[in-house]
Predict the structure.
Amino acid sequence: MVMPGGGRASRCVLALALATALAPALVSCSRGIDQAQSVQTRIGRIHGVAASRVSAPSAALAGAVSVDLEEGLSVAEVLTVVASVARAAEAEDYADYRLTLREEGGRGADRTTLVVDGDVARGPRADAVVTGWRRLQSALVGTVDHTHQPGAETIVVTTPGGLLHDVVESARIGYGTAATTWRFADGGSTYVDDGRIGPRDVRLVQRVQRTVASPTLPLGAPGWRLETHDTQVLLDLPVALTDAVDPEGFTLRAFARPVRPLVEAAVDALDVPGRDLVVRLISPDSDGSDDSDGDVVGWWSSARPTVRGRDPLHRGWDVWLSTVAGRALAGDPS
């Protein structure tokens, strides 16, 4: 027997059950939002803070605190802000968070950032990290975006044409550990390095920039990318052509002669004993751009043989590059 209104009653029971099940989650969400607002209110009262934003943690993401610093703060004052933020978070039991500091960059650069987690903000590394960030910011032409967490940190320097200057200044400052990864980019060339930058790294960047981007070459690679690691040095050479060429058209017959001086100059610049040297020849995209993530037409390693079948178009650049680069490395001018 069907009772009148049974469907409506069932729907009411279902809605009540759903509301009961969701109630703890809704309460938790509301509590997280209230907590974030309380932390933001406390941070807004800290001297040196121009603006702040605090987001509540979720099941997938930790909380996030973003602070815009007032202009003209000293390193000691920035450290005081970091410590005060940590105390504000602790007072509201807001323990797991990422702190982002923002302020105007040095020499008119865009806003620079420092990102650390709550443990670093509360720990002994805060002094060294903040001091290093501020020293880089004041000395470099480019914008410094510094992310630090225990066991790993990344420093990205985006510089308008001052890549070599900023590499030299970073070496002079001497910041970094084995866990530091640097990335310098000027809109064309890119340099990536691990650890503390030293004089040998500076000389290597100088040689690469002076040789592979030289206007005296028939074909240069002003958009080069150099990566140095403990056991390997990688140099990407996106060939700069005046006219667009399809991948199939970038053949040995058409381009081997003008590309050869570029390869010889690159190998000569990579004077790094004891490490595997890798040179990748990059064909410009069909639209003429020199994208280092584009078509790798040629690959050579000083420590490993060429890989048969690597190039699906079978253009023969790997064997050619291995021959030319190998002779250049051995000092054979033939």
In short: The first strand starts at residue 49 and ends at 55. The radius of gyration is 28 Å.
